[in-house]
Amino acid sequence: xxxxxxxxxxxxxxxxxxxxxxxxxxxxxxxxxxxxxxxxxxxxxxxxxxxxxxxxxxxxxxxxxxxxxxxxxxxxxxxxxxxxxxxxxxxxxxxxxxxxxxxxxxxxxxxxxxxxxxxxxxxxxxxxxxxxxxxxxxxxxxxxxxxxxxxxxxxxxxxxxxxxxxxxxxxxxxxxxxxxxxxxxxxxxxxxxxxxxxxxxxxxxxxxxxxxxxxxxxxxxxxxxxxxxxxxxxxxxxxxxxx
Length: 243
Hints:
- Helices cover 15% and strands 33% of the residues.
- It is built from four helices and eleven strands, in the order H-E-E-E-E-H-H-E-H-E-E-E-E-E-E.
- The chain has helices at residues 20-26, 103-120, 129-132, 158-164, and strands spanning 31-36, 49-54, 58-71, 83-99, 136-139, 166-177, 183-186, 189-192, 194-203, 227-228, 231-232.
- The protein has a seven-stranded antiparallel β-sheet with strand order 2-1-5-6-9-4-3.
- It starts with 19 loop residues before the first helix and ends in an 11-residue tail after the last strand.
């Protein structure tokens, strides 16, 4: 299955061209956001997804990896008591600008944002149970990825996005219109020239649905990456694709 029109890097060039689409495509730095419609897919087939793409005009980018734990209970409360480890919470926070160089470009941006809002609010009585889950794959070169993006890769289809994109949930989605930059006018409508989109990504433990590799499992007492039955379960290259 090929990408939808909302994942295209093409834009209207009849009224000017800033070449940002060409650059982001050559550098593999586009931001792809794919909504996984079903987690039941065969390994040799492209999964059913809806995808939107934005150019990489990052305003802010942050990765937080916070260990969680509780203090051991003792007969006499000890402020220095050992902490019982309960896992790690991984969070990405990013904000991107979505500018337009022409009225058609602005209308296309509005369509993408509307599509993304629809991804986040699936109809409660429509579709499969899997589609109702807040399950996404997000990719931006080696900055947002599964750990498998260890060399230059092109995200050209759904299967690529599942393999190299970050398996995550999306929360705190926010859209702001930059009113100072103004609007394009159309018959009976106005189209913002610049949006700012912010969101929080919560990576899932597994890099793929039903997979046996994880973004992070940490080190064992022996000092090596975590294993199960002597088989590595930590991808070892999350978050930036280096080992």
